[in-house]
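Students often ask why we bother encoding 3D structure as a string. The short answer is that it lets us treat folding as translation between two languages. Here is a chain of 387 residues written in the first language.
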Amino acid sequence: MSLALNGGSPVRTAPWPSWPPPLDDAQRELVLSVLESGRWGATQGGTACADLTAAFARRSGVEYGVAVGNATLGLFAALLGLGVEPGDEVIVPAYTFVASATAVLLAGATPVIADVDPVDLHLSPPAVEAALTSRTAAIMPVHLAGSPADMDALNAVAARHSLAVVEDAAQAHGATYHGRPVGGLGDAGVYSFQASKAMTAGEGGLVVCRDRAVHEAVWSACNVGRTLDGAWYGHPRVGWNLRLTEIQAALLLPWLDRLDDEIDRRNTFATAVERELAAMPTPAVTVVPQPPGTTRDSRHLVMLRVHVPFDRSFVLAAMAAEGVPLDGGYPPLGTMSALTEAGARAEHCPAAGAASREVLWVRQQMLMDDPAGAAHIAEALTKVLAS
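And here it is in the second language, the structure alphabet:
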């Protein structure tokens, strides 16, 4: 069968679902209400930001939340709130988005890039242990692709060495670990509302935590150094304006009512992908498994591992031509010269290196398709890899 890249017929011609989905009635009503109120900023007396942070904190199993302009700033504020200072080191996984490391640099600390588990691609507890020094102040597990990192093991490492734990939950809205929601499993958790995420206002983020003192420090960092009960022009700490707007919060707050249904839809599609891949004439692709303890995967992505040699650039181009575009995924953080030149320290990370060569992603909007669409992914992979 001729590849579409070479003039053949593509496997799929129908469009995949768009992302974000269309506004629902509740979003439209709340956004219009905020717009008409004229209270668009978070300090103008509106309630959308406060309601969103309270709802997210409850859903994360903690008491406190702070809405911020984006998740990178949220990670930065969380690190500051937990006392991370210049000269400290923060361990981050090698297979993650660059912002996990740049947020550490923003706080004046050193990102230490540690390897991931070779099977599930989440931060490896043994690799964390190997990367520890006397300067280590925190660990930043990432709930990659919507599945939770192995938090019991990582929290145990942190407890043995008196380290803070900041969960990068940017991709994991609604995920649970041993029945407990992510975000509330460490000392602070940070969600993203960037355009590709499971809930989006174009940009945005939110920090959750259980400790009041940490919450006050995070809130102050995000509110130009003010204190919760202090004067408007009182700035006893150094802080910044990192706030979310009421308009963004109005887009996000009603989304919580449909989030679980959308997670269910993506999980149904992911199950269909696994089934279709297993039925390939020569099974050469598998879904990267969930880490131990996963009880709900929010399926921001489905990560596929290819078990045969392949030309990565060619396969990505050929799959796109077949109407089944896949994403190439992350390069290992330690290979990014901008990070190492800025002071990041990279450990030996063979598992992340293998992932960058062998793993491809099915993006979130594709997972919102009818499960029958999973057959197109397997069919296109069979056709392209056979070439």
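Translate back mentally: The chain has two domains: 25-257, 258-386. Keep this in mind for the problem set.
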